[in-house]
Amino acid sequence: AHSVMLGSMLAGTDEAPGEEVLKDGRRYKLYRGMGSLGAMRQGSADRYFQDPGKGETEAKKLVPEGIEGMVPYKGPVADVLYQIVGGLRSAMGYVGAPDIETFRRKARFVRMTMAGLIESHPHDVVVVKEAPNYSR
Predict the structure, then answer these.
(1) Quick one: pLDDT at residue 67?
(2) Fewest CB within a 10 Å sphere: which of 28, 29, 38, 74?
């Protein structure tokens, strides 16, 4: 890939828009995709070629392609990016890639069974300290 979309991955950071809320003792940020009904009502309709002058932003005319919800609060964006870069460096090391271009050529996606996916995660333990780069 030459580009990625990181919307929900960065949505819980301090720098991302959205109100912070407390629910069941955990912090979250409200999140909505630009294709959500709320975002379209507040101005993203032009991205989807819907003309307010023609009455096309009425709820019945909008065709949302996104959602509104909550994402876990993650703190500063720099901390999240640090984890992403660390994961990328680790993956590059697994395939012996000294740079991104080599990584693009050498990386291979593999299909996992659901049993394999479950086995690849921590299991049969009670997590007492969560890692910043891992959640179930």
Answers:
(1) 76
(2) 38
